[in-house]
Amino acid sequence: MHVKAKTHFFKSLDLTEVMVPADDTPGAFTATKLVCSLGPSSHNVEVLEEMLRAGMVAARIDLTWGGLDFHRATLAALNAAMANTKKLCAVVLSSLGREVMVRRQCVIGDDGWPAHPDPFNVTAGQTLMITTRQDVEASPTVLPVTYPLLHNMVKEGDTIYIGRYLVCGSDSASLYLTVLQVEGQDIICEAQNSAVMDGLMTVFHMERSADSLLNLQNNLPLFSEYDRQAIAALGAEFEIDYVNLAYTRTREDVREARLFLDSLGMTHTKILAKVETRQALLNFRGILAAADGIVMSRGNIGLDVAPEKMALVQKQLISHCNLLGKPVLITRVVDSMVSNPRPTRAEATDIANAVLDGVDGILLGAETLRGEYPVHCVETISQICRVAEGVFDYSSHYDSLMAAAQELNAAVTYAAAAEPQLGSTAQLAINGNGRSSSGALSGKNVAFAAGTSPGDTEEGIAEEAEASDSGSYNEIHAMATSGSYGQLSSAYDGYQELAAFTKFGGAGAQSVYSMAHKGSTGSMVYAAAGEQLPYLSKLESLASSAVRTAGNTKADLIVVYTATGRTAQLVAKYRPPMPILTLVVPRLINDGIRWRLEGKATARACQLTRGLLPMLATPGPNGDAVLEAAVVAAARAGLVAPRHHVVVLQQVHDDFCVK
Predict the structure, then answer these.
(1) Residue 35 in contact with residue 364, Cβ under 8 Å?
(2) Are 68 and 230 in contact (CB under 8 A)?
(3) Do 356 and 394 form a contact (C-beta atoms < 8 A)?
(4) Domain Pyruvate kinase C-terminal, which positions (predicted)?
């Protein structure tokens, strides 16, 4: 498949228009999402309230550093700030995962945050030792690390990067080492530059294959033991909307995380795959098909990829995510604002170019975690994003997705015809509850077991899957470890990536030439082999039509009714220039023990998708009453005014309509 790079056409080349001051109205709508890492600079209620008003829509809690009690207090403060400001904020929990760190003694400050009071000074040309021995204490010349097998991975000539937590590259706390020799568990190195080793130090093995595709990987597990304990504890006390998987390497990592979260009862928690290494780039399509969103860790990728390739990598990752309609975030945008109130020219341009590339959001790290200007940082980035959105070429983006649809449709049809059929239509057909006549899991349940959530199919099917008891952790785990599932998975894996790119959320383990749709009887009906397969599902066709209608009528607002968030995300995929007011109607759910009202989690999950403005709707006597209340709320927010046009996408009985 050929994906064209985005081109940016400016309607006017008059520089006097460019120099007109931007709209700096407090609380003005910004389509690009800002996710802020919370730490010592941003863990009290007052600062969090200001950050929410400035444009923060999601808060990140990073388990890499900080104790569980500190994170509990921060989340409690965030809940209080949301209540005071009446603003929704998603919670993203980042795992420690496969991170390798320098082992040093730390002290706990009065605020509960750990710190290293005595920095180490290293000068260029100095010889120092990295060791995996556990009985050695850190010093300016000896750095013990947490990974016990690092000495087996390196050899003479390798490059090892050591940098402060949330710093990668040019900071004074960045140290590049050349390996001189390996003696048992000790790695003798020479410093390439001078640095100040301050705070938590992380280790990245750049090694000898910097000019080739593959490199060595450590064998650390996806989740550390602390990750598992912290996710379980915080998930039981607070509402966690996303888990951000550090050092995701393959789609199997996403599947493992999904099974673990389901075992904790965190079935509504979505998964962001953090892409940090060349191995993740090589496996990116599989990762994207399985995950709910992508975080591009530009700091670590910048260490593992040649500098001249970084811009191309970023543009390709964003383009792939845009095609699939899944949110993509980038990191490391305004490092200088950790200690300065104004970004550099390069940083401001970098943010604007990312918006023009189609990124959904910006993930801030040290800038808001320990920076001196967390609120001003959020305000500044929001302003830059808003101005860039004003010149985004929306029509070309829409046309490029339509062109890609035709090309992908041809590719999938060709793949379906070329591969041997895995079973007859009768063997693949399933009944309404997702089981074959033999009682085995198939169809949507197979897709779930293969690492995609039940929500990967169309909205109505997703709701059936949620109501079914066949997606339990034990059943899926047993299926995933059985021989029959292994054969099925390997046979269908070749289809999964193409299928994922032809249907929002992926088609899971279904055969692409047996794409299912619901018949009038409620059973699943499959297309015959070789039949033309549509790229756009019925729901996505309506979503794209709503965007086209809004453009033709010059509407100022799109209103989307949704129960799972999928409809709104499909509309956002086409990047309309106007806000998408996402009306989440709460639903009563019976889990077999009690009734509960659901809706807040869906609204918060929409916070990472560009252009969406989620709003919890108050159930009314009819849909028109809910719509009227939503338009009034939009008018109060300054999104619409009298005589403005509004396009509405809603479900009427069993069908969706655009009006």
Answers:
(1) yes
(2) yes
(3) no
(4) 540-652
**Vertex 94 angle, CA 92 and 99, to 5°:** 170
Residue 432, both tokens: 């309404």
* Pairing mode of beta strands 557-562, 580-584: parallel
Residue whose token pair is 């005071």: 84
Range(s) within the chain of domains with CATH label 2.40.33.10: 100-205
Instruction: Give the Cβ contact number of residue 346 at 10 Å.
Output: 9
pLDDT score of 105: 87
564 — phi, psi (to 5°)? Answer: -110, -10
Nearest to 198 by CA among 110, 106, 285: 106
CA torsion angle 288 290 291 295 (round to 10): -30
**CATH 3.40.1380.20 domain range(s) in the chain:** 538-658
C-alpha to C-alpha distance for 539 and 7, rounded to whole angstroms: 28
Handedness of CA 131, 133, 134, 139 (dihedral sign): negative
- What distances in angstroms separate CA 224 from CA 95, 97, 221, 508, 538, one per listed residue? 8, 5, 6, 28, 42
Span between the terminal Cα atoms of the chain, in Å: 34
Two structure tokens written together for 53: 């008003």
Percent composition of the chain: helix, strand, coil (DSSP 3-state, to 5): 40, 20, 40
Q: Looking at residue 528, what is its pLDDT?
A: 39
| CA dihedral sign, ordered 6, 11, 16, 22 | negative
Q: Count CB neighbours of 76 within 10 A.
A: 14
Give the number of other CB atoms < 10 A from CB of residue 616.
15
- The fourth-level CATH superfamily of domain 538-658 is Pyruvate kinase, C-terminal domain (3.40.1380.20)
**Mean per-residue pLDDT of the chain:** 80
Pairing outcome for strands 580-584 and 33-37: unpaired
Rg (CA), the chain: 25
- The number of C-alpha atoms within 13 Å of 374 and in the hemisphere containing its C-beta is 28
| 3.20.20.60, 3.40.720.10, 3.40.630.30, 3.30.930.10: CATH of 30-98+221-392 | 3.20.20.60
Placement of tokens 């953090």 in the chain:
274
- The rounded distance, in Å, linking the Cα atoms of 479 and 472 is 11
d(CA 623, CA 626): 5
Least confident of 6-15, 22-31, 289-298: 6-15
- Are 605 and 241 in contact, with CB atoms under 8 Å apart? yes
| pLDDT given at position 170 | 62
The torsion of the CA quartet 547, 548, 551, 556, rounded to 10 degrees, works out to -30
Looking at residue 7, its pLDDT comes to: 62
The two tokens of residue 445 are: 């349940």
Task: Provide the pLDDT for residue 591.
Answer: 64
The average pLDDT across 48-62 equals 97
Q: Is residue 22 exposed (0-12), middle (13-18) or buried (19+ Cβ within 10 Å)?
A: exposed
Write the DSSP symbol of residue 610: T
At 250 the pLDDT is: 95
Whether 461 and 448 have beta carbons less than 8 Å apart is answered as no
DSSP class per residue in 469-524: STT-HHHHHHHHTSHHHHHHHHHHHHHHHHHHTTSTT--TTS-GGG-EEE-TTSSE
Residue 102 DSSP label: B
Angstrom CA distances, 11 to 8, 30, 390, 392, 396, stand at 10, 21, 11, 10, 13
Could you tell me the pTM of the whole model? 0.82
Query: Beta strands of 308-395 (E only): which ranges?
Result: 328-331, 361-364
8 Å CB contact between 61 and 73: no
Q: What's phi and psi for 232, nearest 5 deg?
A: -65, -45
Q: How many of the other CB atoms lie within 10 Å of CB of 274? A: 24
